[in-house]
Amino acid sequence: xxxxxxxxxxxxxxxxxxxxxMISAKHNGIENVMAAAWVSLVGNNKVMAFIGKQAFTRxxxxxxxxxxxxxxxxxxxxxxxxxxxxxxxxxxxxxxxIPIFYQDEFDLPLVEGCAGWLICKVIPNxxxxxxxxxxxxxxxxxxxDDRVFNNGxxxxxxxxxELRTVHYVAGGQFYAIGKGTKFNxxxxxx
Amino acid sequence: xxxxxxxxxxxxxxxxxxxxxMISAKHNGIENVMAAAWVSLVGNNKVMAFIGKQAFTRxxxxxxxxxxxxxxxxxxxxxxxxxxxxxxxxxxxxxxxIPIFYQDEFDLPLVEGCAGWLICKVIPNxxxxxxxxxxxxxxxxxxxDDRVFNNGxxxxxxxxxELRTVHYVAGGQFYAIGKGTKFNxxxxxx
Lengths: 190, 190
Hints:
2 copies of one chain form a homodimer.
Chain A: E1 3-5, H1 12-16, E2 21-27, E3 30-36, E4 39-42, E5 46-50, H2 56-64, E6 66-71, H3 77-85, E7 100-101, E8 110-111, E9 116-122, H4 126-132, E10 134-145, E11 149-150, E12 153-154, E13 166-170, E14 173-182
Antiparallel strand pairs in A: 1-10, 2-3, 2-6, 4-5, 5-10, 6-9, 7-8, 9-10, 11-12, 13-14
């Protein structure tokens, strides 16, 4: 297994299958991770993330101007629920249980064991942020676990099932991504 | 099989698993359907959809103030690729091949055979629309095929595999949603 850089032109494919994500950020030495199901692409190089007013991570994003969207796997579902149910505001050693690593160039915490990571630089828009809790970001760095995403394509069917992405419904119910199919035509290319 | 109304409080769950969608709209008797992978939730009652400037459907949305987000199944993947690869601008009998139906109250075309449908009323925001091709909409109506979504929950594991949602990557590659799991805790409730 290796964590490989993803070509920024193909990084959108990490998110396009619609996984539930975790968002992390750091400011002034303080780091945090939250769960986020309302994250989407805005074209093929930008991200829009809903970060509620109650989220401690929001302050870190607002102050630093950066956030990381990471794509957890089935194996990490307990972590996703843990970071979703517990706030740094009440448990400020929250991250003791979450193994973090860094990539060169970026002083941003990445959660170990994910399928993919996207570093986003906030494109400020006060109305979206204040009225709708939406933070737009340009994708400026991306990596994947090459067992599940390599050469710009997901390869779940060749990897252990515990490395599949998770797609959260509600009340603890979620689905893993399933079986892949390839038509010989369709938008996008290799 | 029945098409059942979905409680608007739970309609967000149709989209939260991150499916590739089709967007339809109608204005002045003209209707169209497009493929859309960049559609997300904004909280639990709103949608944000990326609708590019080249899309004929965009004019229908701008003029009518409404759009429908529908969630296709594996069985409809050819339809998704067809509407994604062919524009009404060049093939204006595009919809001859796409069976459409209507729900009472709404003069909007819904594509037959989908897993779910969400009617969205545009919340105007000129900057998002012009600069980023983003159309925000409030969810004002929702239905599901009760074989796959019932009582506010997806039930894919009890239904034929061809009714699973699709999650598009690029170049004709897509994944179906996979196996479900239920933890006994987690955000959201029944």
